[in-house]
Structures are given as structure tokens and as C-alpha cells.
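Course assignment 3, question 2. Fill in each field.
Student: A.L.
Task: Predict the tertiary structure for the chain below.
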Amino acid sequence: MKILPNKIAYVSVINGRKNYRPLAEAWAYSARKNGVKNCFIYSSCDNTVGFLNCIEGITARSINKKHLKTCIGPFNIIPHIKIKACLELINQFDAVVFCDLDAFFLKNPTSLFKDLFQSHDLVFSWAISKRVWPRYLGESQGWAICTGCFGVKNTGEGRKYLEDMDNYLKDHSTPNPSEL
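Answer field:
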């Protein structure tokens, strides 16, 4: 399936704390400045969604906390919000690219993702360090998949990955990649 540049959604999440609002504004500004379209930020806090919807260039949406599983570790509900947000958008776009709020756009990445999605349904960044989380991967492998930036193409395999992760997070407090 050919991916058109205007059919890729870019999404991030915020946990709702006010101290992250300037980061969300900067993320939206970097997207707008570089011509990135279809930008969404999801939050579990309705007040934050109201604030974010005043920022030009993004659409803020709410995620219902009662449907989220809290993960053990430093990330709380963020991993599940990421998956829920991508699941909501995947049927509306040809692909969804998740970017952490601190992953600013230095240039428009659409052509890069368009090229990657020609031959891949899933695209992940990776972290090369002994200090990655979960720690056992960093210590044993020296690297881990980084979910701070990943892309999912709207194909059967792409949707299945998101659905499998959602189901896994509903049933487990700490994801164990070896079980997927």
C-alpha cells in the first residue's frame, strides 16, 4: 500500500501535569514550524486537553483512565496511553508515528517515514546503552527497542501489533517482550 504524506498521523502523550505543558507547546511549535501535519496529543487529564486544544497545529484528545493499566516502573500509565492513542488513530490514517514530547521535529519526517513504510509495517528506534529500561536488557544486550519514537502502518500486521500490546498491557503490570 502506498503511503501518502498527508495520511500519516503524528501522536504524543502527556500525563496531565502542568509542568509538562511547556514541553507540549514546544513539540507542537516544532511540528508547525517544520510543516508536520496531523499532530495529536493525548492526555488522561481533561483540563490538560482543554489547554492543549488552544495550541495551534495540534488536536488534543482525552484517554479514559479507567481503561488503562498502570505499569510498574518509571512510566506509570504512559505506555498504555501510547498504545491506546495509536489504536484510536490507526483506522483513520495510513500510518501512525508516535513521538515522545521531548522528541522535537528538526525537519519534517514524513518523507523518511513514507520510505520506511514502503517495506516495513513497524518501525522502531533503539537505545544503545547499558542504562536502558528494563535494566536487564541493557545489562545483557547493551541495547533495547525505544518506544520514544515508533511507527505503525495501517495493515493487518500493524493493527495486530497494537491490539496485542493493548491486550498484554491490560493483563500485565510489566510488559515482558519475550512473551509477545
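Instructor remarks: The longest strand covers residues 143-153. Residues 156-171 form the longest helix (16 residues).
Grade: pending
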